[in-house]
Amino acid sequence: MDPSDATFATGVPPEAAGAPAAGPPVDPAGRYTDRYLLARGGMGEVRAVTDARLRRGAVMKIVLPHLARTSAAARLRREAELTGQLQHPGVVPIYDSGTLADGRPFYVMREVQGQTFREAIRALAADFSHRGFRRLVGALQRVCETIAYAHSQGIIHRDLKPDNLMLEAYGSVLVLDWGIARRVDEPDALGAGTPGYMAPEQSAGPPEAVGPPCDAYALGVVLSDLLAAHPEPPPTLRDLIAATARSPLERPAAEAMALELSAWLDGARRREEALRAVSEADRLQPSVAARRQRAGTLDAAARAALQALPPHAPVSEKGPHWAHQDTAAALRQEALLAEHRWEQMLNHALRLYPDLPEAHARLASHYHRLHQAELDPAAALRLEALLRRHGAASHADYLRGEGTLALASDPPGAEVVARRFVLTQRRLVPGAPVSLGRTPLTAQLPHGSWLIELHAAARPRVCYPVLVPRGGVWSTTPPGGSPAPVVLPEALAPSERYVPAGWCIVGGDRAAVDPIAATRVWVPGVVFQRDPVTVAAYCRFLDTLPAEEAAQRQPRRQRAPSDPGTPRLVRGPAGWAPAAGLDPALPVTDVCWRDAAAYAAWWAAETGQPWRLPHSIEWEKAARGVDGRRYPWGDFCDPTWANLVHSSPARPALARTGDWPLDEGLYGVRGLVGNARDLCLDAYRREPPPPHLHPDEGVGGEGMRMVRGGNYAVAPAMARCAGRLVVGPGNRYPNISFRLLRPLS
User: Fold this and answer.
1) Exposure class string for 54-65: b at 16+ Cβ within 10 A, else e
2) Claim: this prediction has a pTM higher than 0.85
3) I want to staple 668 with a disulfide (CB 3.0 to 4.6 A). Which of 164, 430, 497, 686 is the partner?
């Protein structure tokens, strides 16, 4: 029997469907009254009837009159029996069965109305939506459950197709037309399915070969029809088309298909919820950026206003600018909390749907940006782990850890040898040499800290430490400029050490005294004096001064501002000399900043070169190199490496320059951690320096002056190279000295 399922499904009256009306069938009990014909096929008809006993509509299926005593009647009875045995929500229930007065068998079932699966697929293809697609996947999943139930009862359908699947208005899904269904253990040759939905063994094989795998095949074809309506069919659903495998042994059972579809639906629902969380996170981003931008504007204005005020300005003048700084700090805190909420939302999305690419991509970009800007090694390791979790594939090149060293020299043609810093006995030391060729050159190197050595004929060897970034280029370009070659000086005196121009990290050591935030700064090239100015050198300076000025500038131990102190140098017939017991090779101490500046002016005039005190940022680069290490040799300090409070069993005391050869920076400058602190050129500054250091800016006036380094009377914790101290320009201390530098001409 092959009635028109579309007409039957929608319950269209005969006059609309074009089917001729027939007289009302009269059952022996007079229970059913005919209303109209729903559908007619070659073997029977389906009619809408009214059940007088229960006062409800129903559907009656009857064989045609001339087939009342043929095999068609037996098949109808068989169909009613098999369908009636399937007690499942996905099967239309059988209400009644019997024989009409003219001998034709009939059965009565629930009246259904809705949309066939084929009609639903066509509507989806015309106006695709993910929600509509998931609805039909859910419907097909319930169809698979219905067929799995039938198989568990030993019954196979044999004619599954989109036209035989009904979607009712309130969510129920029905498998219709069990007219050629049969029991598995009762093979027969009657009834063929629909071409295109029949398995190979059903269309060409023996009857006994037809079994549950045939229904699985048809379900796979129905799924293919559904996937054809999707612009980009989900791969996990495409895998289920294996149900259409030619071999029955390779097809999943209907129950397995139902479970797979259920799992996909669960994932689709969780993915939809996860995407909502991503959208909610996206809505937070503008507020985060706006708060930070507003905070930066307020902070910059307040900082500029405060710097314009003298330190002794009254609080009434500073207060409004402090309030702006407080507002900026509050805005940053709000932005930080909002960003934390943003991360929480994205991580919630990943808990719902762990493979959600939208959430992983956003987090990977976030952690990539933070990792690139992070200067603290421990924090960078954490960010790298997070980046690997969320962006291992999308940021593979970055995570591979290689970077580019692009290097030119003036003059060109310098031989370049690279040595990666390795930790040995808790000190970072240059490792095995790697020849890179001659400048100009571009080389790929593993990310990290390297010592680059440049050798050119008739030129001093130049040490040029670099910090090769992941997936980036070590830049030789100053802010707002163009790539600059590494200048190779023509000559250096034995007591001079060259610090080439370039980027470095300053600050960032929270355990240092008066720390500033980690900042990348471009520092011009300079030549340092290897050691502090000695007592002997200072005596030669005093010899050039008028007696009264020399007496004022002589080192003296000052116990109080009003106390002239005890002279440390004496003037004899041959000129100024150390007092008894004072070694002339010691760094000169007990001199003030004004004395050191006067000495620098004298030495510049003597040599014809622009010698001066170092800017504190220049000093920090000479001490720490470019990678932000805490000490010249790394992040650990042992008292045996510098003249500190516990460096010897004797009482702490000032030592001669050069007595502690391990206290040496990457560029060869000595005495940066212990022995005596160094006076610096610049006035005290609370904020980090600008990206491009201009040493002549901010050095005027009589304000407090920067002092850098440790001394013989402090522990390693007080000698960290990022630490900052200040002194008045007229104050003298027995543990503070100075050294000079000159810009590279």
Assistant:
1) eeeebbbbbbbe
2) no
3) 497
